[in-house]
Please model this.
Amino acid sequence: MRIHFSCRYLLHIRFYTMHNKSHIIILFLIVTIASLTLFHSSVFAQKTQAILIDRYQNALAVDTANPILQYQLGVALLIEGRNEAAIERFQLAYPAYTDSIEMNYNLGLAFSKTGDTDSAVLYFEQAEALGAFKYPQRYPLEDAYFNLGLTYLNQDLLDEAEQILNKVLAINPGRYQVHHALGKLYTLRQQPNKAIDEYEQYLAAAPQDQAVRDFVFASHYNEGLKQIPLDPAAARVALNTALEIEPNHPHALYALAHLDMQDGQLITAIDSLNQLYPQADQSLKENIRVVLYNSALALQQRNWKNDLERADMAIKRVLEDAPEDINALFLAGNIALARKQHDDARQFYESLLHIDPTHQGALLNLTIARKGAVKELVADGRALLLDQRYIEALASFESALTIDPTVPDAAQLAKQTQKKLAETAASYFSRAEQALESKELNQALELARKGLTHQPDDPRGVQVEKEAVGQLTAELDARLSRARAFFDEGDLEQAEENYNSALLIAPDNSTALAGLAAITQRYQDSAAHHLALAQQALDTDNLLSAEDHYRSARELQPDNKAARDGLESTLLLIDTTVDRTIKQAESAVHSGDFRNARVSLEKAFKLRQTDDIRERITALEQQQETHIQNLLNQAARAIRNQEFKAAEATYTTLKAFAPAHAGLRLGLVQLDVERQRAIEHHLTEARHALEAKDSSTALVAYRTVLDLSPSNQAALDGLKAGKQLAEKRLSGLMAKANSAIAAELFSDAENTLKKILKLDPYHTEATAALNRLRNTRQKGLKPGDDKRLYLEGIQYYTKGQYEAAIGSWEQVLLLVPDHEKASMNIDKSRRKLRMIKERKQE
Model:
């Protein structure tokens, strides 16, 4: 599964709600989902999430129906990774915050982490509708949608994946990874033209992706072959396009040469074929091969008992004499696949495609073989690991990772195996050192070499082996050792002198003779080494290192074609990367993400130290300083307005990219001082209200304190006292309201219920009664009800009442037949109901 979770999800919670004309701002936190790193504010910097959760739970024990505390508890649970529990708390608080961007965003985030993709999309879209795109740093919906699209894709929900991925492109046309996902999607749908178009757009931004290049090349090449007898001009266009993807590919060049001959361009065709000849496949014509091949094919088609085993023996014999026979390789792969020997099948298909990348059967079957091979290799590796056959186990895990780097557990198992190899080697080396000290030289050498089979390049093992050999071979080996050392250091002149010196002692010494021969190949070997290092550097995106190694290889061998082509492609890749990172920096600056903008520009500057990039970095620093001052001013205004959570949120944003700024430190101190002053003020106000028997004012004040400090014991105790003071009056009013409802005096009942909620906005019974009353009085549908009904459907969905949600959204469709979100949400709810039914049947 190729899911790009490199993007960092930011979870931001900041609520605005009016409560008796008091402006209450709820907790603002930032969570990095990929690493679970939490940036705490100054208040919570030293407190664990467990303590925070406990405090919210204690506060809720006093004020059970408080949606603010329910929401805060949900946030703390989400940060701790308790996603299901977080969802439950969010759902309890949701009715009070249906129009909150933060609530919908965080519900979407929580559902996405549980794998409930449909629900995640529903809430993300609601957050979007409420204006989340105005705050891309706070609510990174682009990343959220992209990962959900990948999840849909891997769940084979192609229509849903296509819609979400196209939505991401509409948000950010420069997000080239989306084209890769869409290419895969259209490939699964068997829409090759669309797939190629998407993959080509992807390659324009990521030309180093060889797997995609191979696919696009094969597609154009296949089209070229198909058009040769139908439309030679179209065939030539397709084949030349293929060569733009893979220059000098022999099969494409051969096909073009064939077209040249058809067009009468004989000299061109002959020149092309002469140039191509050293790379061309040899035709295999021996009768034995034909017989074996036909026999194996017949057996494979008949497939009686033991037929496949016999067919396997025959086709392998064919391949011994003709290892590049395309038909034989394909048949061998098919036989291995039928025998469920997936790794053998994979190797046959890959060998075939290396020769002829156009082979449709191999392209199709390779996917099946690779999936099976990965399972086989991991299973074999586990068995070998348990059997303590660590070298073979590591080879199995590494082979699995070579096929599919994302295969679950393989990387961890490989690391575990490598650790076992290192431990075993260390044991051998220790015993070898002990033997060396005891002058048991043969045993020391044997043990050292056994250790080196587990860790071939281990310096400790090499040293023990050298010492043992040295003491065994005396002066001859001393000279050979010096020669090897000089050779390894690159001092070829001294190496040659020592090898010649060794030959004076033993003229036929094979090691010395081989060493002298190796010296003559050193430049060639060094060039090959630089080419390998260049490829390794490319694999890790270390472009400058790759450039250096290619240049070194060219200095050693100026005519080395691989070095020349590699340098050209690397320089092109560097230019492409610089352009892309500059665009990423521009996009980040536009959204206010100065930290990532700086990272992108510094990456570009590292690759190409141009004046343009240097000027961009300088301009960015100026913009960032201006932004910092704006944030400091914004936070200061929030503190003056006693909007402490908003101030805290602003400081947290600032801390993300300027943690050491002096203004940030001073501002946090001021925030703590003013917040404590406000807490004391509200506590005093609440005490005076209690003394005056004003329970409503007291409850508001105490809840305000708990919003600022959920563990404040004075507020918790005061809230209890306030609720006790209000209980008698609230009970009387509730009885009055119930009587009015029973008498169908709905207006009187509604007024009474509103009085109750004015005294205690979180009165559960009154809230439920008012909702029932309003539902009872509802008559028919009228224009404009679609928005209310849509939100009503979301509330039902949030409560898990999927049938009721469907009912609300179906009413939306009566008013707005083309309401796309309502229609999609109905499908999601029905899918939910099917899943619930299937679980019950299990």
Remarks:
- Residues 108 and 121 are 7 Å apart (CA to CA).
- The domain at 287-408 is CATH 1.25.40.10 (Serine Threonine Protein Phosphatase 5, Tetratricopeptide repeat).
- The chain has a mean pLDDT of 80.
